[in-house]
Every structure is written in structure tokens, then in C-alpha cells.
Amino acid sequence: MLMPSIFGETLLDGFFGFPTRENFGRSSNTNGLMQTDITEKDDSYEVTMNLPGFKKEDVRGELKDGYLVVSATTNTSNDEKDSEGRYIRRERYSGSCSRSFYVGEDITQEDIRAKFEDGTLKLSIPKKEQAPAINESKYIAIEG
Q1: Which residues of 18-50 are buried (b: 16+ CB within 10 A; e: fewer)?
Q2: pLDDT digits over 25-67, tens only?
């Protein structure tokens, strides 16, 4: 008799967070990290990105080859010692993440407005009209 499995392929898959067929390719353990909403306005794109646990100093935005790259890096340490200097609890976390978006070659750093508040990064990226391509005819010289 076939019974539904509550554990996935093996008992330990769900326990240790190994990807299964159900959640493979999904970011199920990101806790909202870098979840992004993009809204189109008349003259700009508004990008809202969740960066919980990061400070303004941890976040960096960079334009490179027409791509806007947003990255965040953190290093935290929670050390608690007793009166004799022995550790009661010692936790460390170090991590980084990044996302990139194509914004076009015409956008400059001065065009983008950014604001970081309460773990949320808000970016305003203006729409730029692309210069129309000039159709140049190239002729081959014929000797004779």
C-alpha cells in the first residue's frame, strides 16, 4: 500500500534542510533576504529590497557594464562570558549576498537614488530614452 511520506526521500532531508524535489530551486530558507519588488512608474523604476539584519554600512550598490549590483556583507559575533572569563555562549555569523539587475548603459551613478531604512533598501532608477540607432549604409568600394 502506498502511503504519503511526511519526510521526503529520507528522514533527514527535511531535518537538515537538504533540497528535495518539492523545494529544489526555491529559496525557502532565505527568511526574506533580498526579496525584491520592482514597480514601474511613468519616469522611473522603484526597487524595494529586503535586507533584514544588515546595517547601512553593510550594503553597497555598484554600476558595472550596465548592471546595477547590490551586495551586502555582515560579520557578527555574540560572545557571553561568565565572571571567570569562560564562555557561556559563543555565536558567530558571517555572510554575504548580492543581486544584479540590468539597467542599461546610459544610466550613471548620479541618476540612481538610494535610501536604506529599517532593513529595507529603496532605489529609484530613472527611465532613459535610448538614442535611436543611426542606420549607416556601408558601401564597398569597387575598383575598375
Answers
A1: eeeeeeeeeeeeeeebbeeeeeeeeebbebebb
A2: 444 445 667 899 999 999 999 999 999 888 899 999 999 989 9
